[in-house]
């Protein structure tokens, strides 16, 4: 698709127009999910704390006080960002608004200007609350966005849909995101429980 990866391992999700899940059979929820009518990319792994650290250093000169909450493994002390030794590859933790700004920054080629964090994938001018306390944030990506937070349908399709699940061109959903109806082994590779 010609878009840079910036250190992310993207997978192309094809099979546009796949069907939704069958509730109660392929998904535990009451509504069908997972149908996506277009091709897109989805990162194979989470954004790392090291990638988050790079973003926060770039955004720091433009950041407001409400953005300085919920950093996960990255901390801000006395005007300097720090990342604990050994935390580089941990999954990043940020607020939804910071994730949106991160997507804007990537969309804008990691530019070091204030406007690079304000629009592109999401319009940060919508970030706020109405009189009833409801968020007014733009929750779906802007048309033409190159990086965005996947929708539930995009995420479910990327993790569970297999266009050949039941045979050649007979698509379906796996119960687990390891292309199986059995859960993954939750252990360190090569270590046996005993």
How is the secondary structure organized here?
Layout: E1 10-13, E2 40-43, H1 49-59, E3 74-77, E4 80-83, H2 96-107, H3 152-160, E5 161-162, E6 172-173
Antiparallel strand pairs: 1-2, 3-4, 5-6
How would you portray this structure in words?
- The protein has about 190 residues and is an alpha+beta fold.
- It has helices at about 50-60, 95-105, 150-160; strands spanning about 10-15, 40-45, 75, 80-85, 160, 170-175.
- The strands form 3 sheets. A two-stranded antiparallel ribbon has the order 1-2.
- A hairpin with a 2-residue loop joins β3 (about 75) and β4.
- The longest helix has 12 residues, at about 95-105.
Order of strands across the main sheet: 1-2
| Helix run count | 3
Major sheet summary line = 2 strands, antiparallel
| Average pLDDT | 89
List the secondary-structure elements in sequence, H or E: EEHEEHHEE
How much of the polypeptide forms β-strand, as a percent range?
5-15%
Which shape, going by the Cα principal axes? globular
Approximate helicity band: 10-25%
Based on secondary structure, the structural category is alpha+beta
What's this entry about, in short?
This protein is α+β, with helices and mostly antiparallel strands. The protein contains 3 helices and 6 strands. A two-stranded antiparallel ribbon has the order 1-2. It has a two-stranded antiparallel ribbon with strand order 3-4.
């Amino acid at each position: 698709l010609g878009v840079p990866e910036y250190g992310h391992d993207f997978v192309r999700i094809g099979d546009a127009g796949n069907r939704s899940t069958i509730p109660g059979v392929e998904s535990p929820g009451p509504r069908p999910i997972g149908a996506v009518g277009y091709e897109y990319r989805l990162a194979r792994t989470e954004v790392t704390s090291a990638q988050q650290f790079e973003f926060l250093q770039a955004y720091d000169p433009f950041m407001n006080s409400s953005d300085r909450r919920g950093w996960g493994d990255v901390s801000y002390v006395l005007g300097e960002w720090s990342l604990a030794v050994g935390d580089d590859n941990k999954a990043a933790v940020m607020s939804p608004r910071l994730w949106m700004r991160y997507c804007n920054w990537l969309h804008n080629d990691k530019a070091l200007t204030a406007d690079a964090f304000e629009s592109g994938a999401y319009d940060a001018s919508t970030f706020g609350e109405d009189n009833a306390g409801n968020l007014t944030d733009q929750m779906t990506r802007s048309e033409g966005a190159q990086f965005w937070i996947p929708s539930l349908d995009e995420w479910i399709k990327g993790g569970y849909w297999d266009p050949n699940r039941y045979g050649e061109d007979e698509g379906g959903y796996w119960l687990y995101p390891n292309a199986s109806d059995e859960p993954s082994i939750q252990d360190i590779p090569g270590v046996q429980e005993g």
